[in-house]
């Protein structure tokens, strides 16, 4: 079958993109210039919201079974506890951070893709591409030097921070490289003073030390190691890692048997627009930022979830291409928020001024003593607070209604089929049964899931997008408001929120 969509890059984001499109019946081809999947742990955390979105494809359980649950995060300065954030309070079927090395995430995603009938083509590099009025022409270079030309309707660049697709579009990757060096050590660790279900961040006068438990007896250690001086940061040794832990940690922790030692510098960059005609950039091809908070891979995967259902509706000719304009608007705003939040966390952690450190510690202790602050931090970490308040897809909301507003996430209910499940990208209707509702579902059979769900609050109707965010809200029985929204969406008309 001739592919409608070409996905370039087969990391976690690219495979998520290809899998979602394939699940929705869109012919897709995915290529990567690397010879094999990564064997490194790299991106380590899968957050609650990402697991909720994977639930629509029925594969969250596979990830959870392979990973290690973390339910809290601690901040310590010297011998004083600054704060404790309980992730288990997050209102989600997955109230935890799932520690899963990227090598395992990629393995599970590739198996998921294979079940959908899609094979990752490796050692296939994009030599060039050209945008056409109604598609894209791409030239590949295979490992044996052979060149191949492919015509597709759409091209999606999920090819990382050094994206060939982004360069080919001439998109500016605006931002900076922070002038500090960092080390990362995946090691075996003994003497950890917290439960292995908790993260620890140590604020020290020299900088920061963060310990992420990966599995029993194994952890990731990240720390800043000073101002950048050379062209590349110096690679750490196990001995240097131990010295740094002894200096900044509480004492008693011992590292051994390193699995991966590396150094890096933090880039904070982002493109202005995630779309150019029939070409999109997704994940690190569109935005890179500090690893503080572990949001990078998850943000990229959620870019993919956002784009996939929209592109599938366009490929199926259910909606016009105008629907795709919302992708960059929605995800660029999220990317900007993540970039700023991660940058702030990094700046707070590595401040050097002694007086500023004292103020930080006092204020931090006071703020983390407030329950609402701890809950807000947990929700931000878990990414369940992400929403699309200013989305062009937000429809009208009946005044005085209790419940989520357009653009807000609908909390998944255990035992209820998530919106966007199955092999067709349909909206879900949360409403009381009635003759008007039955007729509405029949009229918009291509856009509305035939399975009605209970209303989110008495007296209302909620139309929910295939990615689980509210599209519009009406009073019970006001099927015209829902019909007007779906009709406008199908025609490609502008949706106005009243």
Automatic annotation (TrEMBL):
InterPro entries reported in the protein's UniProt record: FAD-bd (IPR002938), FAD/NAD-bd_sf (IPR036188), RIFMO-like (IPR050641)
Residue intervals passing through the bilayer: none
Keywords on record: FAD, Flavoprotein
Cofactor: FAD
Signal sequence region: none
Boundaries of every FAD-binding domain copy: 4-341
PANTHER family named in the record: BINDING MONOOXYGENASE, PUTATIVE (JCVI)-RELATED, TRK SYSTEM POTASSIUM UPTAKE PROTEIN
Protein name: Salicylate hydroxylase
Annotated organism of origin: Fimbriiglobus ruber
């Amino acid at each position: 079958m001739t592919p409608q969509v070409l996905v370039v890059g087969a990391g976690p984001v690219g495979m998520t993109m290809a899998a979602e499109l394939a699940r929705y019946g869109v012919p897709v081809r995915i290529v990567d210039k690397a010879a094999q999947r990564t064997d490194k742990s790299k991106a380590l955390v899968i957050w609650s919201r990402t697991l909720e979105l994977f639930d629509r494809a029925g594969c969250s359980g596979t990830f959870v079974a392979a990973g290690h649950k973390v339910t809290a995060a601690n901040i310590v300065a010297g011998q004083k506890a600054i704060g404790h954030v309980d992730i288990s309070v997050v209102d989600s079927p997955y109230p935890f951070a799932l520690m899963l090395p990227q090598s395992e995430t990629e393995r599970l995603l590739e198996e998921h893709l294979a079940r959908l009938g899609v094979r990752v083509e490796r050692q296939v590099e994009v030599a060039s591409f050209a945008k056409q009025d109604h598609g894209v022409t791409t030239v590949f270079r295979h490992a044996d030097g052979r060149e191949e030309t492919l015509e597709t309707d759409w091209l999606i660049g999920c090819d990382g921070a050094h994206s060939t697709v982004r360069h080919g579009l001439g998109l500016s990757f605006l931002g900076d490289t922070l002038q500090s060096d960092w080390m990362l050590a995946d090691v075996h660790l003994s003497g950890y003073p917290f439960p292995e279900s908790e993260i620890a961040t140590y604020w020290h006068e020299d900088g920061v030390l963060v310990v992420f438990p990966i599995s029993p007896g194994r952890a990731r250690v990240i720390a800043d190691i000073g101002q950048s001086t050379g062209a590349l940061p110096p690679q750490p040794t196990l001995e240097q890692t131990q010295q740094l832990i002894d200096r900044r940690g509480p004492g008693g922790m011992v590292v051994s048997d390193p699995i991966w030692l590396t150094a890096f510098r933090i880039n904070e960059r982002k493109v202005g627009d995630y779309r150019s005609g029939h070409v999109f950039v997704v994940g690190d091809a569109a935005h890179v930022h500090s690893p503080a908070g572990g949001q990078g891979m998850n943000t990229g995967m959620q870019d993919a979830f956002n784009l996939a259902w929209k592109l599938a509706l366009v490929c199926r000719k259910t909606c016009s291409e105008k629907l795709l304009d919302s992708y960059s608007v929605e995800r660029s705003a999220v990317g900007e928020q993540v970039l700023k939040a991660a940058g702030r966390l990094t700046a707070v952690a590595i401040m050097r001024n002694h007086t500023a450190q004292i103020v930080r510690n006092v204020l931090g202790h006071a703020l983390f003593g407030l329950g609402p602050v701890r809950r807000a931090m947990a929700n931000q970490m878990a990414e369940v607070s992400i929403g699309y308040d200013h989305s062009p897809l937000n429809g009208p909301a009946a005044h005085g209604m209790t419940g989520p507003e357009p653009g807000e996430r609908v909390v998944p209910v255990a035992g209820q089929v998530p919106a966007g499940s199955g092999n067709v990208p349909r909206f879900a209707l949360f409403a009381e049964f009635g003759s008007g509702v039955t007729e509405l579902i029949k009229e918009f059979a291509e856009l509305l899931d035939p399975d009605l769900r209970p209303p989110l609050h008495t007296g209302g109707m909620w139309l929910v997008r295939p990615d689980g965010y509210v599209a519009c809200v009406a009073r019970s029985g006001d099927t015209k408001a829902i019909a007007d929204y779906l009709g406008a969406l199908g025609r490609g008309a502008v949706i106005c929120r009243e």
